Amino acid sequence: MSKNILITGGAGFIGSHLVKYMVKSHPDYNIINLDKLTYAGNLENLKELENKTNYTFIKGDICNTELLSDLFARYGIDGVIHLAAESHVDRSIRDPFAFAHTNVLGTLSLLQTALVFWKNDFEGKLFYHVSTDEVYGSLDTGEEPFTERSRYEPHSPYSASKAASDHFVRAYHDTYGLPVVISNCSNNYGSYQFPEKLIPLFINNIKHNKPLPVYGKGENVRDWLFVEDHAAAIDLIFHKGTTGETYNIGGGNEWKNIDLIRKLIEIVDRELGREPGTSDRLITFVTDRAGHDLRYAIDSSRLRNKLGWSHSVDFDEGLTLTVRWYLTNPEWLERVTSGEYQNYYQEMYINRK
Ligand code: NAD
Ligand code: DAU
Question: How many Å apart are CA 157 and CA 135, to the nearest integer?
Fold first, then answer.
């Protein structure tokens, strides 16, 4: 059955993988990608979709309710997959208001627009909110992984803003009956990730012989998932998930930062034909991130047992693929690090008209 799906934040890291996945796997769906193109949005990530007839890009802000109403009316939106957000913890420590604005007020604006347009007939409608495991706070070593019943205990302005948005999504379900579903995912890695996040930043620094700033002692633990496995999980939950339900998504793949960094060094040195251990000297321990969560780990048994999801890419394979992608796409990295990528919208969507 044909659907008109609004995906927000589709020019970012996970969003661009999801948009490509949905456009290709569901040729009968119209995918409308709404993205403000902040520093994290890059239309080059979506280059391969330029001639697809079931794909439309709209540059705009999720806080703009007039624009949202116009899009719901114009495209007859019957599904929303909401990813647009400020997503970097370090930035949230420097500028928490930007996070409250987009992540909380933006989500609320989308919820309210969906409610106004769908309230007379919720049949076939779904508001899917993409969230993070960081809302559950931090685990000690040896503690059981987060389940969907874990208490919300965010520590950073970023995770606090995502927690607030999750609460609003549930409130719209419980109060107004809006059909919603939420997923909380662990750390993603893969191609097209903005090089402020650990993995792409460190690949780029190793390549250019620049210091690798390891926060604290590098003992924090993250649970890593290949981004395409996240996109597949979102598609599955969107189609088969139970309304009102939450699903945790994780890689079952916990790594201490310092061990992951040593593994990255090994792969990058190998791929560049350097002697093993060449880049070890780049490791530089720096002041820890304020409020740095020690450990995230996700129990995804609900998603596995009820919907039959499993990840398809193991970490060795995924990390090698990821390193190769950044090393064989130096132009992408250079355009992002120089800021040139921000002209792409101008060239693609304004100059050609
Ligand atoms: P990202 O920072 O790479 O991309 C965010 C996108 O949202 C960008 O394209 C940006 O332009 C857009 N955007 C920001 N503010 C906007 C606004 N006001 N209106 C419209 N568009 C706006 O983020 P990401 O890492 O791809 O994360 C996407 C979503 O997944 C976020 O909601 C994040 O909280 C969640 N998430 C991320 C991870 C991860 O490991 N990266 C893990 C779990 C959940
Ligand atoms: O868990 C899901 C979350 O994962 C998402 O919700 C966030 O959007 C995403 O950014 C990510 O958050 P993290 O803070 O875990 O990711 P980041 O890549 O910033 O950092 C990963 C770990 O590496 C973390 O423990 C901090 C550390 N780190 C990070 C950077 C950028 C360093 O030691 N040095 C660095 O320079």
Answer: 10
